[in-house]
From TrEMBL:
The keyword Oxidoreductase applies. Residues 10-161 form the VOC domain. It comes from Rhodococcus tukisamuensis. CDD domains: VOC. This is Catechol 2,3-dioxygenase. It comes from the Bacteria. Keywords: Dioxygenase, Oxidoreductase. One of its GO terms (molecular function) is dioxygenase activity.
């Protein structure tokens, strides 16, 4: 067990907000193949639907009649990583949802998404290079991924681990609110 305080079993669910629940159901069931597992009606006409991501984990969506509009570049990334350069989003926002996939299914799943009309970015190798990602595989690559948007502009990722994470993978001091460096953590603290 890696958590000494709480026995956590991973993500129970992520709760996001959609503009059109019917379109969301179509995308997550027909494009991504998830099972719609629970639908709830909320006071005021709202809805809350749950989709099974696998492994006992769910992604859930709210629909609210009076929700504010999508705000790319503020509340969510404005571009697909590898296509555009704007992955930043505001403090407190949800940047993206990453779905774990088998490494040997990577090319197949990218082709399936594209066959269903979903624009994907290039395969990215997350590594210890200066940018943190590259188009080329290297000894420091730890996960491969592709990114794409759902119909509401929520950034999604299919990610495949390429190796186990090690203690020396924690080597950077965290930034403070003013951009300075905080106390070193992990291997950097030694």
């Amino acid at each position: 067990m890696t958590n000494t305080e709480f026995e956590l079993g991973g993500v129970c669910h992520l709760a996001l907000v959609c503009q059109d629940m019917e379109r969301t159901v179509d995308f997550y069931t027909n494009v991504l193949g998830m099972k719609l597992s629970m639908t709830l009606s909320l006071p005021g006409g709202g809805q809350h639907f749950f989709f099974d991501m696998g492994g006992g984990q769910f992604i859930a969506f709210f629909w609210f009649a009076d929700a504010a509009p999508h705000a790319p570049g503020i509340a969510a990334p404005a571009a697909i990583p590898g296509i555009g350069r704007e992955i930043a989003s505001a403090h407190g926002s949800m940047n993206h949802v990453s779905f774990k996939i088998p490494l040997d299914k990577f090319d197949e799943y990218k082709a399936k998404l594209e066959a269903k009309g979903v624009q994907t970015g290039p395969m990215l190798n997350h590594d210890k290079s200066e940018r943190g990602i590259s188009l080329e595989d290297s000894d420091s690559t730890f996960v491969k991924s592709i990114y794409f948007f759902d119909p509401d502009g929520i950034l999604l990722e299919f990610a495949a681990w390429t190796r186990e994470l090690r203690e020396d993978d924690v080597a950077h001091a965290p930034r403070t609110a003013d951009g300075g460096l905080g106390a070193p953590v992990g291997a950097a603290a030694k």
